[in-house]
Design a protein that fits this description.
Elements: E1 4-6, E2 11-16, E3 27-36, H1 45-53, H2 60-66, E4 74-79, E5 86-96, H3 109-125, E6 131-135, H4 147-159, E7 165-170
Parallel strand pairs: 2-7, 3-5, 3-6, 6-7
Antiparallel strand pairs: 1-2, 4-5
């Protein structure tokens, strides 16, 4: 059983597990992760995405490489879990300015907030008012962000005032 952090309606639940093998809920499910704006895809959570969904022309990696790399944008790549009552996609969130192994902070909180807000608006426009977001502690690993700040952004920009929820996976 995981820990939960509840905001106004939306909730964040913490579980032990792999975000590439999510606890699929009925309806729309998105596996979110933080990407850089330099088209780098070779370390961290993306390696697990490659193992789970491949690197072919319809993969999350291919969608990332063909989409905008502007901070605050996102792209989505549908993935197949064979569950007929659910739609599952990987959401590439461009919230990291560059990358490196020097311990610097590459995450950009304003870019995460913008991407989360735009993602929520896009989903609402498609008629999706209840979404389950699955994620590692995005932006808090190699990007160097503070999880407490990112958690607040998720609450404020994705979940507040909705019946959506987020499930955060810790290995």
């Amino acid at each position: 059983m995981g820990l939960s952090s509840q905001g106004i309606l939306g909730m964040i639940t913490y579980v032990k597990g792999d975000a590439t093998d999510p606890l699929i809920e009925p309806g729309v499910n998105l596996i979110l992760h933080c990407c850089n704006n330099r088209k780098g895809w070779g370390r961290g959570f993306v390696l697990a995405l490659n193992r789970a969904f491949g690197t072919g022309p319809n993969s999350p990696r291919a969608k990332f490489l063909e989409s905008s790399s502007e901070l605050g944008t996102f792209s989505m790549a549908p993935v197949d879990f064979g569950v007929k009552t659910s739609t599952v996609s990987v959401g590439n969130i461009i919230g990291q300015d560059g990358y490196g192994a020097d311990g610097a902070k590459y995450v950009r909180y304003d870019a995460l907030a913008t991407a989360f807000t735009e993602l929520r608006k896009a989903l609402k426009a498609l008629g999706h008012s209840k979404v389950t977001y699955h994620m590692p502690r995005l932006g808090a690993g190699l990007a160097g962000g503070n999880w407490l700040i990112i958690e607040a952004l998720i609450q404020d920009c994705l979940l507040a005032g909705t019946s959506s929820k987020a499930i955060v996976y810790d290995l």
